[in-house]
């Protein structure tokens, strides 16, 4: 990693311009991915929050309703409605947690066959990403993956900070 001189100068200006360009690109990406998610949700007859919860379950595996609500940034009462819809439509199951001290504890799990429908809806984007990634070396992809991981962590921290206010 390189550092930029705090005193300024041309290298500092170029670095600021490049940083502004990266931030602008990330905002545009977020907007386009939100639109894509909305289109996928419309195709599958899922609300945005429903699709977000399915994505969290796909990424993290089974979760308790309260953990899923925290990660999705939803109020527990809202999460109950989301889970009721998803369960009614066959997207998730609620299962008793046999390891929990509280016998009422449940875990939410995505239904594998239904999850495949979501992946199929994103097939065009996945193919496009494969084509984009084909133009980069393994080292460049590792750099990009690290950058995106750090941006994701920064976004999670910013969301947590706002939630705590």
Structure commentary:
The protein has 165 residues and is mainly alpha-helical. It has seven helices and two strands, in the order ααααββααα. It has a two-stranded antiparallel sheet with strand order 1-2. The model has no long low-confidence stretch (mean pLDDT 91).
Short description:
The chain has 165 residues and is mostly helical. It has helices at residues 10-44, 48-60, 65-72, 76-88, 112-121, 123-134, 138-164; strands spanning 92-96, 106-110. The model has no long low-confidence stretch (mean pLDDT 91).
Helix/strand layout:
Layout: H1 10-44, H2 48-60, H3 65-72, H4 76-88, E1 92-96, E2 106-110, H5 112-121, H6 123-134, H7 138-164
Antiparallel strand pairs: 1-2
Helix pairs in contact: 2-3, 3-4
The portion of residues assigned to helices is over 70%
> What would the principal axes of the Cα set say about the shape?
globular
Total count of strands: 2
Measured by DSSP, the beta-strand proportion falls in 5-15%
- Based on the structure, what is the oligomeric state of the protein chains? single chain
Averaging pLDDT over every residue, what do you get?
A: 91
For the largest beta-sheet, the strand count, sense and barrel status come to: 2 strands, antiparallel
Strand order of the largest sheet: 1-2
Rounded to an integer in angstroms, the radius of gyration calculated over CA atoms is 20 Å
| Content-based structural category | mainly alpha
Pick out the low-confidence regions: none
From N to C, what is the helix and strand string?
HHHHEEHHH
Helical segment count: 7
End-to-end gap? 33 Å
